[in-house]
Design goal:
Blueprint lengths: L11 H15 L4 E3 L5 E3 L9 E4 L2 E4 L9 H9 L3 E3 L4 E3 L1 H5 L10 E2 L3
Antiparallel strand pairs: 1-2, 2-6, 3-4, 4-7, 5-6
Helix pairs in contact: 1-2
Length: about 110
């Protein structure tokens, strides 16, 4: 049986933030992979102009606004998808594998 999309009923901003964090987590240059399945993100990207570079993708700054919204991280942590220690964001194994349904909805490869 296929995994249900968004079983924790995350809102749109939480979903977008989580899927972008998952993209960063897949990039070995930007993340540390732990034996238990957790992934620590070395840094979160910042917007320049109207967009943000997330790995090899360009994302609208509006779609990535959750990166700078503390309430988003609190909600994701409360649901067990991330841990934040003040220094870094760690996707839990559950956060890494969470099905957002957004994996290919708004990403486009960077041309610069």
């Amino acid at each position: 049986m296929a995994a249900k999309k968004n079983p924790l009923k995350l809102n749109k901003l939480q979903l977008r933030t989580l899927v972008l964090a998952q993209v960063i987590g897949r990039d070995e240059r930007q993340a540390v992979h732990h034996p238990n399945g957790d992934v620590t993100l070395s840094q979160l990207p910042h917007a320049h102009g109207d967009h943000v570079h997330v790995g090899e993708f360009v994302v609208s700054a509006k779609d990535a606004s959750g990166f700078s919204n503390p309430a988003v991280w609190v909600a994701l942590a409360r649901k067990g998808l991330v841990r934040e220690d003040g220094q870094a964001i760690t996707l839990t194994a559950e956060g890494v594998s969470y099905e957002t349904g957004l994996g290919d909805k708004f990403l486009e490869k960077s041309d610069h």
